[in-house]
Amino acid sequence: MSAAFAGPMVEKNIKKSALVSMVCFVVGFAGTGVSIALNFLPGVFICYGAIMGIGLGVGYLTPVKNLMLWFSDNKGLATGIAVAGFGLAKAIASPLMEYLIGTVGLVNMFFILAVIYAVMMFFGFLLIKRPADWVYDPATSHVSRAEILRKPVFWGIWIAFYINITCGLALISQEKDILHDVLKAFPQYAGLSPAKFAAAIAGIIGLVLAVDSVFNTAGRVGFSTLSDHLKRRETVYQVIFIMSIAVCLLQIFTNSINNALLWAVLAMLFLINAGYGGGFSTLPVLLDQHFGTKTVSTTHGLALSAWAFAGLSGNQLASFVVTHTPDQAHRYAALIPVLTGLFALALISISLVKYLGGRNGEGKRSIGA
Q1: Model pTM?
Q2: For residue 283, what are the domain limits?
Q3: Residue 363 confidence (pLDDT) above 70
Q4: What DSSP state is assigned to residue 188?
C-alpha cells in the first residue's frame, strides 16, 4: 500500500525515492535479524512487514517512470524489462536465502542480506537519473489523488488489474495440488505409497514451476512490448483476459484435471501465468495513455493498491472454493469456473475503459492499429 502514497515523491525526486527504498530495505533486514535474535515478534512485524513493505512499494515505483522517460518511443518494452526484473529477482534471492540459512543461520542471513542490499541499492542510487532535458514542474506534474479517484476510467483499470492478480494468485496457490491430482492418475504412479509418489513427481512439479516463471517473465516483457505497437493499450488486457477465459473453458469442457489431461492443465497454468505477469507490466503504460507521463508515478501507485487487496483475496478465494465445494473428489476443478467468471468481469471492465477512453479522445497514438 505504500506505493499509493509514494507516487508524488517519485514524481518529484527520484534520487530521494531510491534512497528511501534502500534505507528501508537495509533497516528492515537488519532490524528483522535483531528482532529474531531477541525473540521480539513485534519487531519482526515492524521491520520485515512495515518497513520493508514501504521500501518495496517505493522501490517498485522508482524505475518505472524513469525508464518511460528515457525510452519514450518504447515505453512498453522499458516497463516490461523493469517489471520482469522484479519478478525474476526471486530466482536469485530465494536460493541465496536458503543457502545462507543452511550455512550461517536465520539471524545472520538477515544481516548478510542487509549488507548485500545496501551495496547493490547504493550503486543503483548513484546511477539512476532523469534525462537531461527533464525538469520537474509542480504546475503540471502534481495531480490531486482525489481527482484521479473520481474518474471512472481509473476504477475500470483498477478493477481489471485487481481481478487479474486475484485470479493469478488463486491459481498459483493451488498449482502444486492440481498437478498432484493430475499426476496421481498416471499408470506409472499407481500403487506407489504417498511418500514414494511425492518423491517421484517432485522433479516434474519443480520443472513445471520453473517453466511457469519463464512464461511469467515472457508475459511481462512480451505483452507490454506488444502494447507499443497497438493504437490502444487496453487491447493487451483484452487479449490477456480472452486468452485466460479460453484456457479455463478448455479445462472445463475437457475436464482435464479429473481426466488427467496434462497438456490442457499445463496450457492453463502457463498462459494464465503469462497473463498475470503481463498485467503488471502493461499497467504503467495504460495509465500513461489515460493520465499522462507527468503523473504516472502517482496514478501507478494508486493502481497498485489493487495488488495489496488481491494479496488478501486471491489465496483466500481459492481456499474457500476448494474447501467448500460439495464434490471434494473434484475440488480443484471447481475453482476454474469461478476464475472464468472473474476473468469475464475483468474483460467487461477493461472494454468499458477502452470505450470511455475512445469516446473522450484519450490515448490517441501514432503507431500501430
Answers
A1: 0.84
A2: 145-359
A3: no
A4: G
